[in-house]
Amino acid sequence: MKSRSEIDRVMEAWLADGPTAIPDRVVEVVAARIGVQRQRRAWPVPGRIHVPTQFKLVAALAAAVVVAVAGYNLLPKQGGSGGQSTTPPTTAPTVAPTTAPATDASPIAVPEAELTGARYRFAPLSDDPSFEIVATGPQGWGGVPPWAMVGPNPVGTDHPTGIGVAFLAADGLYRDPCHWDVDGSGEVGQPGDVAVGPSVEDLVVAIRANKSYTASDATPLTIDGYKGQELVIQLPDDPFTTCDVPADDAGGDGRAFVFSGVNGGLYAQGPANRWHLFIVDVDGTRLTVVVPYYQGTPQAEVDAAENVVDTLDINP
Amino acid sequence: MVRDLIEAAQRGDQAAFVDLVRLRGGRFMAIAYRILRDVDRAEDALQDALVIAWRDLPSLRDPDRFDAWVHRLLTNVCIEQAGRERKRIANLYVLPVDGPAGPDELLNVGDRDQLDHGFRRLTPDQRAILVLRHYVGYEPAEIADVLGIPAGTVRSRLHHAHRAMRAALEADARAVVGGIAR
To answer: Which of A11, A131, A314, B62 is most enclosed, with most CB atoms within 10 A?
Structure first.
């Protein structure tokens, strides 16, 4: 009978036999295939995002009376030489609603393609979106149908300069975003382990009470006539490599989910991600607009994201 | 240099990715072959895994984890392919073993045949774990990380795989003894 160590040696000797070089033909095929294979942006694609194939449109879009949210320079760049600050602003400036000119162009469904500065229709990340959102897609950004847009390729929402705008019906939070896999299944979309009531105030209070990130004060907000609050949260400067991994994630990367949700919620896009949150009540449904960015995100892109929020049109 | 290539590829540089494939591809091919025991299927699996790697590379947050990340992608593709193959051929024939058979006093022809037979009877998961343990040299905790399964599961599958391979070798030994006795 062979001993355990002898079996190991035999196995290793047996496995040592065989090819150890990649044939040129394989390299050539891979080169050809990646020539037509577009890379995925690092925008969150939770495992169970359901993209409605029949997106219900509101029959007639009202004249776009939008609320311009002016003067909320809520995204200050932290100075100093000590690297990235993890301290968010302590206050959020007051929002001053104004009226923007209406547009005659009919909005189109946001494509999975480069945006052109036109008006696009979005649906919040939700099992059953009860309203649509029309927003201006900044020139050169990318669409993530039906619920988000990301900064220009190839950065998208990536650390350290990316940015995006996402619309979701956040219905819960995780106490520890890094360890969201509460039931051990790895399934994305588990209910958050922080009980959150139905109102805007409930969600804001729960966010501000969470110790896994820091949050600014919340200030009143009105978007397209819908009232709510805005605040900024600063996520840890952590690569999330030790965080829970979605079961169906081929890459095996950890994720830090802040929001839970029936369709997967939303996770940090990179280390030291900063989220500007706009939370409003749309006739009893809570809409959360997330602008994830970084200290290093160019101001022009931050301005573009602010303009997206400025020009939102919510159509229940 | 490798990190530079990875970062360039993450930004969409196809030439950098191809250079990366040339640099790292031999090791990946070796792993795929050893799980699948067939050059053609190993090449197919490797191509698929590398295209997935290209597609998802922007989501790789730590370039230093590139090799482990590709190992995971590749292993998953190989497991899937081996699973399909098991259903299709149902162990009806023995696949040819390609590549040089280096001299090794530890292995005789009978050992190799029995190891081949024993290995093909393993589940795809067990095959992958054996290769990651005895060829790549990963510890069980590292295999768990690569495959995204608990370390206890890795140890359990490794135990069963070892037992199966030991049984294969000992069956060979009994056959030889039996032959002498007859």
So the answer is: A11
